[in-house]
Amino acid sequence: MNAYYTSQLVRDEPMTIHPSRMTISCTLEFRPVLAGTVVAEIRKGDGSLILRIPFDENGKPFNCVGTEECLQGMGSWGTICDSNARTVQIILTKSLPDDAVAKVNYEYTMDEPADGPA
Description:
Blueprint: E1 7-14, E2 16-17, E3 23-27, E4 39-43, E5 49-54, E6 65-66, H1 68-72, E7 80-82, E8 87-91, E9 101-109
């Protein structure tokens, strides 16, 4: 264990908004991901928040924040985060605006093997 540098915060890692504008996904670049630290954010081109989705230790969304329309359109059955596989997938029932940008923030540990990018 390195007493001076044992975890790393990753901010604004890009996510892919698929052509339907209803599915957002990514594979997190750094590993091992600390469960419960993953937060996806979707913003308009002007930076205003559309949707913020924190994921709990089990990869389920909780305490989501966003526009009422987007919160109602969140297909929770398909919104998951798998910290072990380092994947995040969000499925909405309504399309995002054309200027939407999706990014993810999370922490990974440097105390275990397989540090850094995959």
